[in-house]
Amino acid sequence: MIDRKKVINRQNPVLEQIDVRSPFSVGNGLFAYTFDVTGMQTLWQKYEDCRNPLCTMAEWGWHTSPFSKETFVCSREELEMTVYPYRDRNVSYAVEEKKGNEKVYQWFRHNPHRFSLAQIGLVGEKGEVDPSQLDHIDQKLDLWTGTALSQYQLNGEMYRAETAAAGQGCQVGFRLRKVYGQEGIHIRIRFGCPDYHSGGAVWNKRENHTTEEIEESHRALLLRRTADRTIYYVLICFQTDHGYVERFRPHEYIVRCQSCHAELTVSFFQTQSEAAKAWREREEKGSFEAVRLSSEKHWKDYWLAGGMADFSQCRDPRASELERRMILSQYLTGVQCCGSVPPQETGLTCNSWYGKFHLEMHLWHAAHFPLWNRGEGLEKSMGWYKENLDKARKNAARNGFAGARWPKMVGPDGEDSPSAIAPLLIWQQPHIIYMLELLYQEKIRRDKNAGEKFLREYWEIVKETGDFMADFAVWDPREKTYNLLPPIIPAQENHRPMDTKNPVFELEYWRFGLEVAGRWAVRLGKDGSLWKHRAEHMALPAYKDGVYLAHENCPDTFLRYNTDHPSMTAALGLLPGKGIDRKIMENTLDRIEDSWKFETMWGWDFAMMAMTAARLGQPERAVSFLLMDTGKNTYVVSGNNYQKDNLHLPLYLPGNGALLMAMAMMIGGWGETKDACPGFPKNGLWNIEYENIHGLPY
What is the per-residue DSSP string for 607-660? Predict the structure, then answer.
């Protein structure tokens, strides 16, 4: 048995100075609170100025701005489409921002948007705390319990702050103590106007939202927050001697503690009934200790139930860094990526693209969970696909396709957002089949009798997705193959939609997804022959000079299009690659390494290439790709995959999830592989102990 606590504790992140790239977060998958070195959101302005805002977010925290004074919600019929020729008809997508339609286009892009529920931090007697007033910083995040301890000197006074989020619900707690200094601690809780920008709130629109006090006692205050049609509730509880809460300004409260010790919890609720129940139970559940114990139980259960690997016996000098990234990525995806809706690319830390999630990233965010024995972390979000299946059907039918077409950039409403790229992307379509198959394999590992029930529960999603994919593939009677025709944009998004034909990864993903859909049909005694035929007759990907091209019409792939994702590698790596020539893929990987502009890649590309190298029997290369020293493969102290120089993404959770997926494959294997850790070199330097890690089943 691995001493899991020992492994995890040696990777606890520590900060000894302000690091705006690396704030810490506490949370539970539903809720996250992100904070600076004070253990709170005290230095919010400095972090926001550096494009890494400190937010308090819940997966249900969405807001819609009115379209106009007269009309709250804009009709999709008002959105002007771009028309493209396709087969024997025209198809239309919300791609271009048409002149005169700009307001409609941008309203649909921005709405609904995720927002920050509150800002909670220290204030001084004279207002904001200046970062220069901080010294002697020592902050540690205890991953085993999900709590943080922050010690620092502020204006010559030594503070000790503990921060924790409850294991369930949306509740954050703080325990602050002045080790020496004058008595008096002042904590501000303030509320901004919900907004779609990265910080999720703005502070200059006080008249656009309301904060009402609906219950009050000696040590608690219940508030109702309203912004347009968004309503939520906030319960503030504090335990301190000689303390009180003061309404300082509109939407702003200060808990003033006149001693050297303060405890505070702040809880958030969607409904009035939840808030009323919490008000009645505030004495029992509103204390910091209750929050701390809840966090400790949640994280202990999380760490003990999932997969674990111990690299301490490895002699390769890269092993400790790989273990650090592995442990911190498990923590971060546990905080950010396992809720009941797919996560946005920055999770619950801050907004990216208005807080909307990108379904083509859902696999990289969360497909690792079943491989690390935590399938519930992925399965919770499968309900969103059920709820939005009808909208996906309408999305397909809008252009005359059968089945269900899943959007790319989307919010909880399930509506495809207009974008120059998103509506034309297709590689998210097989994702749901891929993820459901991983969950099915985990179900039957745990209980062989659970498989059929799971198949029946999700059969309709697989069927409708398979029907769209089958209809989208176009038969070529001369070549006797099925093809993926324009207008499409591949995973490597820098290709023109009308030029793109048969992109390598998408072509192979269609083969794989249709084959798995057919397998589901057989398991349930249904007819899957249509999908089987399509899978067996998908076109083979184009190559030139012994290397795969980005797509059939891109002979200059490695001269003009050697930026962004080298997604052709996923066709053998993430996928088993039945239609892929291994030698050509090996040559392709060589060419990418020689000519690609690695600084333009994204966090998940490195794990994707590692998976390809592993399947090609090149484990040393797989490790090197995982740890490649380049800007967007940086993992900062907090463990977040930092996207250097990217204005939209101060962190990138698909990088963390992809790393875990690649590591599960490299440790647990794939398909029929029998060797232990086949993705690591057999040179005596990689003695990895592991438990409950499962490789790819194909």
Answer: HHHHHHHHHTT-HHHHHHHHT--SGGGEE-TT--EE-TT-SS-S--HHHHHHHH
Please, which residues have CB within 8 angstroms of residue 136's CB and are 6 or more apart in sequence? 151, 152, 153, 158
The residues, ordered by sequence, that sit 6+ positions from 651 with a Cβ below 8 Å of its Cβ are: 52, 346, 347, 349, 640, 641, 642, 643
Q: How far apart are CA 686 and CA 333, in angstroms?
A: 26
Query: What span, in angstroms and rounded, lies between the C-alpha atoms of 642 and 573?
Result: 24
**Each residue of 220-263: pLDDT tens digit?**
999 999 999 999 999 999 988 778 899 999 999 999 998 999 99
Cα–Cα distance, 132 to 127 (Å, whole number): 14
Average pLDDT, the chain: 96
Give the pLDDT confidence score for residue 126 in this predicted structure: 78
CB neighbours (10 Å) of residue 570?
24
CA distances (Å), 60 to each of 57, 169, 396, 626, 649, in order?
A: 8, 11, 27, 34, 21
User: CA 572, 578, 582, 585: dihedral to nearest 10 degrees?
Assistant: -40
pLDDT bucket at 180, cuts 50 / 70 / 90? confident
Token pair belonging to 8: 């995890």
Q: Running DSSP on this structure, what letter comes out for residue 486?
A: S
Residues forming beta bridges with residue 233, ordered by sequence position? 224, 269
Question: What is the pLDDT, as a whole number, of residue 645?
Answer: 74
Find, among 468, 489, 501, the residue nearest to 395 by Cα: 468
Pick from 441, 465, 466, 473: nearest CA to 454: 441
pLDDT at position 577, please? 97
Going by pLDDT thresholds of 50, 70 and 90, the confidence category of residue 333 is very high
Considering only CA atoms, which of 174, 141, 135, 142 is closest in space to residue 156? 135
- The answer to whether 520 and 530 are in contact (CB under 8 A) is no
pTM score, two decimals? Answer: 0.97
| Nearest-angstrom CA–CA distance, 189 and 605 | 40
The answer to whether the CB of 573 falls within 8 A of the CB of 695 is no
> Tokens 């996250």 belong to which residue?
32
Q: From CA 44, how far away is CA 477, in angstroms rounded?
A: 62
Query: Per residue in 582-637, pLDDT tens?
Result: 999 999 999 999 999 999 999 999 999 999 999 999 999 999 999 999 999 999 99
Helix (H, G, I), strand (E, B) or coil at 388: coil
How far, in whole angstroms, is CA 538 from its chain's centroid? 31
* Rounded CA separation 419/497 (Å): 13
- Residue 466 has which token pair? 């398979």
The Cα 480–Cα 476 span in angstroms is 5
Which neighbouring-strand residues pair with 157?
154
Closest CA to 33 of 2, 1, 61: 61
